[in-house]
Amino acid sequence: MPRYISLIRFTDQGAKALNKSPGRAQAFAKAAAKKGVRVVGQYWTAGRYDGVLIIEADSDQAALGSLAELAALGNIRTETMPAFLEAEFDAIVK
User: Fold this and answer.
1) What does the pLDDT look like over 32-49, one tens digit per residue?
2) Is residue 17 a contact partner of residue 10, using CB atoms and an 8 Å limit?
3) What gap in Å lies between CA 77 and CA 88, rounded to an integer?
4) Is 5:81 a contact under the CB 8 Å cutoff?
5) Into how many domains does the chain fold?
6) How many angstroms separate the Cα of 50 from the Cα of each of 1, 61, 62, 72, 76?
7) End-to-end CA distance of the chain, in Å?
8) Which terminus has fewer CB within 10 Å in the chain: N or C?
9) Residue 8 burial by Cβ neighbours in a 10 Å radius (0-12, 13-18, 19+)
10) Domain boundaries, position 26
11) For position 75, which CATH number holds?
């Protein structure tokens, strides 16, 4: 199942309502699940990025569609990359 790591930065709008971030995260997980996207991990961080989201999805379209809907709410910006397990990466480089 494809998985992705998404680095998150709050927009000004998202930072102003920081206390609502956990609720928004829960809402995203529920909405994403309806599209075949599973939140594997969701972390708030300190530093260059405000958070990290790890998801698995039935398809690239489901994953990227869910992340696009999340970003469209205006609270965050994401930088997303596919992530591979060791065996998957080994098959790619062979």
Assistant:
1) 999 999 999 999 999 999
2) no
3) 28
4) yes
5) 1
6) 26, 25, 24, 17, 9
7) 20
8) C
9) buried
10) 3-93
11) 3.30.70.920
